[in-house]
Amino acid sequence: MTATRRTVLAVPGSSDRFIAKARGLGVDALFLDLEDAVAPPVKVESRQRIVAALTSPDGFAAPLVTVRVNGWESPWTYGDVIEVVTGAGAHIDALLLPKTQSAAQVQALDLLLTQVEHTAGLPLGRIGLEVQIEDAVGLLHVNEIAASSPRLQSLVYGPGDFMASLGMGGLNVGAQPAGYPADAFHHVLMSILVAARAHGLQAIDGPFVAIRDVDGFRRSAELSAALGYDGKWVLHPDQVEAGNQIYSPRQADFDRALKIMSAYAAATATSGGAVGAIVVDDEMVDEAGVKLAAAIAARGAAAGMEGIR
User: Fold this and answer.
1) For residues 205 and 212, is the Cβ–Cβ distance under 8 A?
2) Residues 6 or more apart from 204 whose CB is under 8 A from it?
3) 79-83, 163-167, 175-179, 222-226 — which is least confidently predicted?
4) Tens digit of pLDDT for each residue in 174-189?
């Protein structure tokens, strides 16, 4: 089963303080950043800081640890992959590629990563890839991007660059632009989600940068969670508890999903009459309803939930 990513913590790779704070946080995943959170003068030296952090015996509580390299539009991508994967590849679950605009960019990273794995004596193909969709070009090519590499694990929405790409009003990354009466991000979120699901990938929402506005974070997270997103980036410990809760099923829904699956399995069996539709809690349930229940049950199980006995 693919690792759950309800909360994905962004950690600047240039900051020993933030790296130390991230070690014990109860997030599902984190990424050590070499891109936007790291100033250009310290990008190169931050590579070895990340290698040291990954190879430290202190470890991270997060089950999934990844690294965001710089995008191909920059001069740093090659060096990021060579130094970080050679130095700490055994401790990296995936690389995150920002500003992805084409399948070719993902395939180039896949090929480079394979070469580094060969050279470093690492298992070929073990390190996964995640990609960010951050502008209009990337969104137009999102389906080809989602099909571009067997290493791919997730598609990630990058709201800041995307808002800038479209010329959206507002300076609060992840918040709805003022003056628009509907969800300004619905089309992009759905496009990424459909491409992800069509190719068996997770879909991850991007950050909400007003770190003290937990209510605003909750509103943003609830919108993408309602669509079916697997999780969201978090930038501050105050966002972690809310994110883990929002991207897990409610206990009542999880329990009802298990009840539906159990009742349907019994009814469709030969011993139960082999019926194709049943009534559960005054609602008709057929195969489509069971698929929905199974999806909720799987999400809850991945989050460590157990049914009430």
Assistant:
1) no
2) 5, 8, 130, 154, 155, 156, 157, 229, 230, 231, 232, 233
3) 175-179
4) 888 888 888 999 999 9
Q: Which fold has domain 7-246?
A: TIM Barrel (3.20.20)
Domain residue spans in the chain? 7-246, 251-302
From the number of C-beta atoms within 10 Å of its C-beta (0-12, 13-18, 19+), residue 159 rates as buried
What tokens were used for 125? Answer: 């193909």
* The token pair that represents 147 in the structure block: 């099909």
Nearest 5 degrees, angle CA 263-CA 265-CA 270?
A: 115
Structure tokens at 273: 């009459």
Residue whose structure tokens are 């559960």: 280
* pLDDT single digits (tens) 133-163: 999 999 999 999 999 999 999 999 999 999 9
3-state secondary structure at position 94:
strand
Judging by DSSP bridges, how do beta strands 278-280 and 231-234 pair with one another?
A: unpaired
